Amino acid sequence: MLNGPPPPGSKIPIATLDRLKNEFNYWYPVDLRVSGKDLIQNHLTFFLYNHAAIFPEEHWPRAIRTNGHVLLNGEKMSKSTGNFKTLKQVQAEPKPLKPKLETLKHVQAEPCTSKPII
């Protein structure tokens, strides 16, 4: 179905199958999957295995990034530990923080130049 005709005997209308195929081709391959480092051993590993088992190589994920490696005062940064603020919370802070927020608006991230990890 990826690059071929619809399954024989399918009762799904061709127009619906074409829409599904176009939707798949819009999202695949996945450019970047971002997740927590604690999910490497299970979710992210199976994410790779499933894509490698089901899809041809041209549909494999292009990159995975994990977060949660940065500590603040020896603790993970998390809303549950109270050492992390959402953008909405920072905007509500007194004026001394606002110039810092304005500065962040002008910081540009480097483009992702990673090669596929598989």
Give an overview in words:
By secondary structure, the chain is of the alpha+beta class. The chain has a domain at 1-69. Helices cover 36% and strands 10% of the residues. It has four helices and four strands, in the order αβαβββαα. It has helices at residues 14-27, 40-54, 87-91, 98-105; strands at 33-36, 64-67, 71-72, 75-76. It has a two-stranded parallel sheet. Strands 3-4 form a two-stranded antiparallel sheet.
Helices and strands in order:
Blueprint lengths: L13 H14 L5 E4 L3 H15 L9 E4 L3 E2 L2 E2 L10 H5 L6 H8 L13
Q: Could you provide a short overview of the structure?
A:
By secondary structure, the chain is of the alpha+beta class. It has helices spanning about 15-25, 40-55, 85-90, 100-105; strands at about 35, 65, 70, 75.
What is the helix/strand order?
A: HEHEEEHH
Overall residue-averaged pLDDT value: 77
Rg over CA atoms, rounded to whole Å, is 21 Å
Give me the count of strands.
Answer: 4
| % residues in beta strands | 5-15%
How much helix, percentage-wise, in residues? 25-40%
What would you call the structural class? alpha+beta
